[in-house]
Design goal:
The structure is a homodimer.
Chain A (H helix, E strand, L loop, with lengths): L8 H4 L5 H14 L5 E2 L11 H12 L12 H15 L8 E4 L1 H12 L5 E6 L3 H10 L2 E6 L10 H8 L5 E4 L12 H14 L2 E5 L22 E6 H4 L8 E4 L2 H15 L4 H11 L2 H23 L15 E5 L7 H12 L1 E2 L1 E2 L10 E5 L4 H19 L2
Parallel strand pairs in A: 1-10, 3-4, 3-5, 5-6, 6-7
Antiparallel strand pairs in A: 2-8, 7-8, 9-12, 11-12
Helix pairs in contact in A: 3-11, 4-11, 5-6, 5-10, 12-14
Chain lengths: ~400, ~400
């Protein structure tokens, strides 16, 4: 009776997020008693703002365990609106904000903007969920590859190349995961203006915008046109990725459509996690200053460590939690390098091809874990590379 | 510059869940100082099992705020497997279980089983998310309307009518929301066997299975074929709908596909809510016995109250939190009745057409809220109906 199973086309097109496969493999190793250095996920280990946790706990104890609005808790939406008004100097109202898991927001954006077969532009290397969501929906991805020589910065020329294709939608991600690049105001503004003028949907993924430690961040939230969606997440800002609370800023009509999508897919988010994030916003400035300082310290330590081996090429990140490392000199592909590094050096990293098909000579490692683990892991990457390149 | 916005076809097809519109409207009324009797959502007000809340809180305090497996916390999956093995007398392993919000599981099931244009069968009245998910994906819904005279029970004849259409998938929901009907073992087994034989995907939504107070529940989890997915939710079992934790039992290959979908859409669920639900499973039998007793008491009180007006037709529920009430004698449509009931009698209910296009002479009300509120709300429904029918 055990017939062959076949799924829908969209089911067959699912690729998931490769970092989670690495996490699974690493966990299997740990289950056998091996200590693993986790540099594969952007899973911050800094304790979250204390008020965030205590508010979440109190909300639970007050039995806030029922349903709430699909668009998000009104108190949280208002606080996000006010905070962004302060950050970018443009006024927002509650109806400019929707709350949803950040990963789902990416899927929702592409689903609401594009029909199967439509063109969408990513500037690669690009966050794995963009690829996974586009594959699931059946979109035609126009992959504009940024230049490593240029530190993977976005240029006017890259934007022009994208526009030539007349895409339905574009996703831009500054501060960037995985490269740590922070794009110029002039380039981002040009991109937004052209999208506005041409009727192209634009998602600005600003998840790491508040974690720029070596360059001033420019947010597109200050720029206003109906087809623009600016998104971010409390996962990284408050070190609570397991809360699964993200948010977006957009035209109220777009916000309504997102809420309807959230209602259809997951009904709503928990109240208590949203109350916790709202409490976090009260200390956002102080807390993100600490996160930035942490990132700067560990990044500069990693730059020193990696500097020892000339065969490892990289651009020092200006923001965020990641190094995108060219390991090509060792002669192994990203998958081979990652697999052996985990097996022989107990260090988990993310293969470069998670970020686009052209990056098989890259790996990404994350610096947001425990300080000693990151240093140990990077030392192991260095050791492994020295082994590979010594002959 | 404010061009007309247009969304994708799937975006245009979004209908959301009408109950949430009612909740929004009721909340607006409350904001103006009016006390509202909430009978529109299955939002249980019984306190959750104490061990569930304290474990969730402890897990938060232990900083379990990172990412976890897309398929769910291993400890929770194992406990679900063991509990269902005990309940239905068939052995399950961790890899038979995936964790995801129950509402999302419905969307994922249809998305993984069906391509746009494929036929899917619902036996109506049927839970609004089925309609919303099918509309979003672009499925051809075959609506097999169950008979009110028969208490909306599912018969062999209904199943035969469904099979004639050679659908790609069928969703069956016993114990039923909104009718409170509990289907016969012989009918469910016939349905499963025919789906197995014909290669039809079958989802058995058993969200209210453990809340049968007047009939023994038969679970399809005891029946084994690769295209069957049995789902349930901790929302109703443990009175924590705001946790957004549901689960499914299926063939390991189907479970893997669901995990990949969860990874793509929302990465994973929070760890702490899953730990809380795992703790709840330790007291599941005692707790659900209490829930059933509560449901029986309030249901029988509602039967008494509604019995006063012969113009209100209904079948007393055998399970769950709902009454599906024929209000046709009053001459108003479901939308008119609900709107005026909320405005003039401060009582929120769900319009019947949320459950299928044919139910404009029905409303659903929920009995799982505060006892006095439910009694008050039902008295108001009775009052309003007496007003409508007195001439």
């Amino acid at each position: 009776m055990d017939k062959a199973l076949s799924f829908s086309k969209r089911g067959d097109a699912l690729i998931g997020q490769k970092m989670f496969h690495v996490l699974d493999e690493a966990s299997r190793l740990e289950a056998s008693g091996v200590y693993v250095y986790h540099l594969e996920l952007g899973n911050p280990r800094l304790p979250p703002p204390p008020g965030l946790l205590s508010t979440t706990t109190r909300s639970l104890e007050e039995l806030n365990v029922g349903y709430t609005y699909s668009a998000g808790e009104p108190s949280l939406r208002t606080k996000i609106a006010d905070k962004f008004a302060e950050l970018v100097g443009r006024s927002f109202r509650e109806n400019n904000i929707a709350v949803s898991p950040a990963n789902l927001i990416i899927n929702q954006f592409l689903d609401l903007a594009c029909d199967p077969g439509d063109k969408v532009v990513f500037f690669s290397p690009a966050f794995p969920t963009y690829w996974a969501a586009a594959a699931h929906i059946g979109l035609d991805v126009i992959d504009i590859r940024l230049s490593a020589e240029n530190g993977f910065d976005l240029t006017i020329d890259d934007v022009t190349k994208a526009l030539v294709h007349s895409p339905k939608a574009i996703i831009v991600n500054s501060a960037n995961n995985p490269t740590g690049a922070v794009y110029e105001e002039a380039v981002l503004t040009y991109l937004a203006k052209e999208c506005d003028r041409r009727g192209i949907w634009l998602m600005s993924d600003e998840t790491y915008g508040l974690i720029c430690f070596d360059k001033t961040f420019f947010s597109l939230a200050g720029y206003d046109f109906p087809r623009q969606v600016v998104m971010s997440s409390f996962s990284k800002i408050f070190s609570v990725p397991g809360f699964r609370v993200g948010f977006l800023l957009a035209d109220p009509r777009v916000v309504s459509k997102f809420s309807l999508s959230t209602s259809t897919l997951i009904s709503c988010l928990p109240i208590f996690t949203q109350k916790g994030c709202a409490a976090g916003i009260d200390v956002l400035d102080e807390y993100t200053a600490k996160v930035r300082e942490n990132c700067r310290t560990i990044s500069s330590r990693c730059v020193d460590l990696l500097g020892k081996v000339s065969s490892l090429k990289f651009t020092a990140p200006l923001a965020g939690f990641y190094f995108f490392l060219d390991i090509g000199a060792g002669g192994l592909s990203d998958i081979e390098f990652s697999t052996i590094l985990l097996r022989d050096y107990q260090t988990a990293v993310t293969p470069g091809t998670s970020f686009g098909p052209d990056f098989s000579q890259f790996i990404r490692f994350s610096t947001c874990g425990n300080y000693d683990d990151v240093v140990n892991g990077v030392e192991r990457i260095v050791l492994f590379t020295e082994q590979l390149t010594k002959n």
